[in-house]
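Archive transcription. Copying these from loose printouts into the bound notebook so they stop getting lost. Printout 1 of 2:
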Amino acid sequence: MEKVKAPVLARCSPMIGGQPHVPPPPGPMWTPPPLAPPSAAAASTPLLGGLTAPRSELEPDVPTDPAAVLDRLVATIVDVRSALLASIDGFGLARSCSMNDEPAHPAMLAAAMGLAHQLVAMGGGDRLRQLVVEHDAGLLLLWPLADQRVLAVLASHTVDQGQIRSFVGAHVAALAGATP
């Protein structure tokens, strides 16, 4: 039997001191850059590892808001703690409500991706598909998305990485910034 958290799609509002906490509106750090207008060339959606799939093969009820996708990821996959979507140049684009709003996080992701690409080249590879960093508090999983974005997921050591990868693959259109 598969372990699955109860699906929660609404933005979280944890209780603090008996009163519901309403998180402050995202600052300018979380304002995504404007997307390019749709074109005929955008007939397919970029997937992980540079693969593409026609949009018709994607789930019809996939949320288009990246923050909602990240919240769904945290809510539905057991042992996932939080998630962050950033541009490869270090700007935050979206985060799950369980992720701290730290301006340094997207910058650290950009630095980690730069180092990871150098390590891939040093090892004779030409494409980074996934980076997993194991540390005493759990795992940091990083995926490059559509050459311009990076997804970071914080999880425990016991998380089913295949389940996360399947989830990300099913929601890559919203995460990579593809327009419907």
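Printout 2 of 2:
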Amino acid sequence: MTSKNHGGYPAFQTLTGGLSKFSRVLARSLAVLLVVWMVSGCSTLQVAYTFAEGSLESRAEDYLDLGPEQEVQVEAQASALIAWHRREMLPKYAAFLTAQADIAEAGGWTREQFAEAFAGFRALVDETVGGASPFVAAVLTGHTSPGKVVYIEERIAERNAERRAEEAERTPEEALEAWVEGRVERISRFTGALNDAQVAIIRGYAERGMTHIERWRVNRVKRQEAFIAFLQASPSEEAIAQFVHRILLHAHEIVDPDYRATSEDRWAMSEALYFDVLKSLSDEQRRELISTLRGYAADMVDLAEV
């Protein structure tokens, strides 16, 4: 294992709006580099995996009405999900990161190379969520009775109320600064400290991205409503797995089809942001990036073999 303090992949947060927090966390906690982001202050991916299983169980308890038998079910599925992710996905992530480190070492990405890399990242996310969905479904299949669904709905409503209160406390300027600071922090964990010009690049994209915020919030509510309505129909486990995958990554196929254009615009903006920052890296920052990517890849290979 390497001992470097790893950060997280900054673009992945574009996936995190819409379902119950339980389902979102199960999917996102095992996505391509989010395991690293979960424990940004820790030293290795091994530590991340140590905490990931307990994190999944804790989130389930926050949103699901669990009896003793269902708690055992959640524990079993969380363990199985992480074992699958370690075995099936980590080698693919390691290969992806190694390929990107090779490009960086050769002088950096052309625009075409970065578009290909970003598409590859999205494909890995899709494969991860698709593979994780059956484990989510194995838990949710026990929560389709009227009382269980009402419990989930009430927990979502509570969290939405908390979120609205938090959002109301921030001015637009404060929200923008939080957006900028979050991305600066995450990117700098890969590259080392960013300079003023690089922060300005991020700020420019942040100002553009803020126009999508309210539209994203509306879409999030629609996804949640669709999720509750779906569970109320007492779907099969297989149907739940298919729904989870679609509502997380292809929600326009289920609800709010007009949002697809907004979602794709957000993805395109993220791609352009990271490309512009990467093109601006100094030699020292590029060396740090290469070292970080190779360190992630080595940790993932080690974990996959455990």
